[in-house]
Design goal:
heterodimer; A: six-stranded parallel beta sheet; 21 helices; globular; B: 158 residues; alpha+beta; 2 domains; 30% helix
């Protein structure tokens, strides 16, 4: 078999049903085989979108996302998508073409040192020098991408390696001596954790994206209910615990709920699970959770005690460890007073916004209506900025893999292609991209991908004519000097129509619900261009570098 | 504080770049680095001296190294009984009449004269950091023209 045939056969054996990508000179042998392969191929209109779509597919389905691009610019265009997946630990296999092996290093046409460029933004990468190595490398790539702390793996395949004919040997087993992820928690550590939990008076569970990637949501719920501890989630953790649950405190951190931030600051025990104490969560580090002992469950030992010193580290898979912990806990803490205190915070400082009768549309109102209309059952992708934070705050995520957002890297332009991937992976679900007028224009060409492939995602553009989050910071911290944040925008309705999609413009509050309903009833991609109050801010907000309970705004 | 860390890695192209990239990306300091094959040609030892301001940074360096797929084991010699050596080559000024004096110094500090021509002596020395420091100190009066060193190597005692 040729290298290209081996690749297709390996993808089939890895269970790959869908690929996102863009052809080019250095991947022609592969595309020739894709022509009649039993793999659904989605041609995006930019390689960056192919990477984001594969990422969105992975986030929404839990499977490995696969994207492909040609050498040089094709590969470098993937890098933003790869870095996005890397920061959020998303399993991705990126395949790139490379110039012929004898040309490597010669500055050949469309040559770039892609393994060099992607080294710091991949979990691992390969330059395949011999066709004989291809099958093993593909197997390893899928294994590495999807196990341990998941992440993107890139395989760079020179044209002649794709062309050469060799015997196909599917490696029976994978043996990478430097890679042995820990699966179960150390029993001694589990005992210590159980003891701390039994002694706690004010415990809180702080859950991150690791809960979702490990599929540990049921165990998390069981633990929270067993020990009667409140649960707060990171942006990446949303959906890992039901948002409507009485023990849910919603999101914590810079734009988290006041009660979540108060609770973590007052807690005497933090049970961190699949979260990494990111600066957007902890605020000023030396003021963070001063009374708390910390149990930290994480698959990645390097995440433990990186930012915050931990009392009981437990390395392993979150699902396994939470299961072990639930079994180990015999004595339960009494949290009744603690939950009462939290209830008071919830009543005193609810998440809120001022909805005046001035006809202006509040973005929070839009998200709330979307929540009611979809009964919390939709998959919501977001761009980055205010739109992302409103989507995180005002939609209640009941299930894992329903909130799809670039948390770590904060990539504008992520949401639309990611929603395409999510919809391809879940054709029967409603999929929305909540966008801003800035972000949507970073990958707007994907309207063509949607229309051509009948991928009916609905894009809500919260259009305020600004790069809203940057404008908000300029308003609050840069004396309202709105340097280059005011946008001139196209007519999004006509733009959608020109691609063969549907555009709906909403300028009045009373039109919001009917527009959303209409969009849901249309069997096509829809842009819903909602002109919101242009200077609405995301509150509460913890200014960068402040303690996490020093919030401004948004409190009743 | 300086620590010797020995990293057993896959002997593959790009591995050194991965390690170097890790150090630069995360802002860790590397003082010296020695790389060579082990008995098994498929693996290499990278013996490095790293600078870490505290235990937390040292732990992070070790954990991040361990995360690399091509890293097989990471050994920290800080709290482990070990033997360490460094090899240096030094070029010093030395006229024929000074040769006797130089040889006395070398005998005292375990240096070895390996070449002497045109008033230039090349000296080799292997030793622990203290020995090497003392030798270099005593060679200063001759005038050191050039110095190359391997960086520290270490091996566990048992």
């Amino acid at each position: 078999m040729t290298g290209a045939e081996i690749l297709i056969e390996c993808l089939r054996r890895e269970g790959v049903k869908v690929m996102f990508g863009y052809p080019g000179g250095a991947v022609l042998p592969i595309f020739d085989k894709l022509y009649d392969a039993d793999i659904k191929f989605i041609l995006t209109r930019h390689e960056q979108a192919a990477a984001h779509a594969a990422d969105g597919y992975a986030r929404a389905t839990g499977k490995v996302g696969v994207c492909i691009a040609t050498s040089g610019p094709g590969a470098t265009n993937l890098t933003t998508g790869i870095a996005t997946a890397y920061m959020d630990s998303i399993p991705l296999v990126a395949i790139t073409g490379q110039v012929k092996t004898f040309l490597i290093g010669n500055d050949a046409f469309q040559e770039a040192d892609v393994t060099g460029v992607t080294r710091p933004i991949t979990k691992h990468n390969y330059l395949v020098k011999k066709t004989e190595d291809l099958a093993r490398i593909i197997r390893e790539a899928f294994y590495i991408a999807s196990t341990g702390r998941p992440g993107p793996v890139l395989i760079d395949i020179p044209v002649d390696v794709q062309q050469k004919d060799v015997e196909f040997i599917w490696p029976k087993e994978i043996n990478i001596r430097g890679y042995k992820p820990t699966l179960f928690g150390h029993p001694g550590q589990i005992k210590k954790a159980a003891k701390l939990i039994a002694q706690a008076k004010r415990p809180i569970i702080y859950a991150g994206g690791g809960v979702i990637s490990a599929g540990a949501h049921q165990e998390l719920k069981a633990l929270a209910e067993k020990i009667r501890a409140p649960v707060t989630m990171t942006l990446m953790g949303l959906g890992g615990f039901p948002g409507e649950h009485e023990l849910s405190l919603g999101m914590l951190g810079m734009h988290g709920t006041a009660y979540a931030n108060h609770a973590i600051m007052e807690a005497d025990l933090i049970i961190a699970c699949g979260a990494r104490f990111d600066d957007r969560v902890t605020g000023r580090l030396d003021a963070f959770a001063p009374h708390a002992k910390i149990i930290h469950i994480d698959i990645d030992p390097a995440s433990i005690s990186k930012n915050v010193k931990v009392d009981v580290p437990i390395v392993g898979d979150a699902k396994n460890i939470l299961g072990q912990l639930i079994e180990e806990i015999k004595k339960l803490p009494d949290t009744r007073d603690w939950l009462k205190t939290i209830e008071q915070w919830k009543r005193r400082h609810p998440l809120t916004y001022k909805d005046k009768d001035d006809g202006k549309i509040k973005p929070q109102y839009v998200i709330e209506q979307l929540y009611y209309l979809t009964k919390g059952e939709a998959i919501i992708a977001t761009e980055v900025g205010q739109n992302q934070m409103w989507a995180a705050q005002w939609y209640r995520y009941e299930y894992p893999r329903t909130f799809i957002s670039s948390g770590g890297l904060g990539t504008m332009g992520f949401g639309f292609p990611a929603s395409i991937g999510a919809k391809v992976g879940n054709p029967d679900r409603q999929v929305f991209d909540i966008a801003g007028d800035g972000s949507i224009q970073m990958n707007i060409q994907e309207l063509a991908t949607c229309v051509c492939n009948k991928i009916n995602v609905k894009v809500i553009i919260l259009n305020n004519g600004y790069l809203g989050m940057v404008r908000q910071w300029q308003e609050l911290f840069y004396k309202k000097r709105y340097s280059h944040t005011c946008l001139y925008n196209p007519d999004f309705v006509k733009l959608a129509e020109s691609y063969g999609a549907v555009g709906i413009r909403v300028v009045k509050k009373e039109e919001v619900c009917s527009a959303l309903e209409k969009a849901l009833s249309i069997d096509n991609t829809v842009f819903i261009d909602i002109h919101i109050d242009p200077e609405e801010n995301v509150f509460p907000m913890v200014p960068a570098g402040e303690a996490i309970n020093r919030m401004i705004g948004g409190m009743a | 504080m300086k620590h010797i860390i020995s990293v057993l890695v896959e002997n593959k192209p790009g591995v050194l770049a991965r390690i170097a990239g890790l150090f630069s990306a995360r802002g860790y300091n590397i003082t010296s680095l020695a790389v060579s094959e082990t008995l098994d040609s498929e693996t290499s030892y990278m013996t490095m001296v790293v600078e870490a301001e505290d235990e937390r940074v040292l732990e992070q360096i070790k954990k991040q190294l361990n995360k690399l797929i091509d890293v097989i084991t990471v050994t920290d010699f800080t709290k482990r009984e070990h033997v360490e050596r460094e090899l240096i080559l030094v070029k010093v000024n030395c006229s024929t009449k000074d040769k006797e004096k130089l040889e006395t110094v070398l005998r005292k500090f375990l240096g070895k004269l390996i070449q002497h021509k045109e008033n230039i002596a090349i000296i080799e020395a292997v030793g622990e950091q203290e020995q090497i420091k003392n030798l270099l100190e005593s060679l200063k009066p001759f005038g050191i023209r050039e110095l190359v060193r391997t960086g520290r190597l270490a091996i566990a005692s048992t």
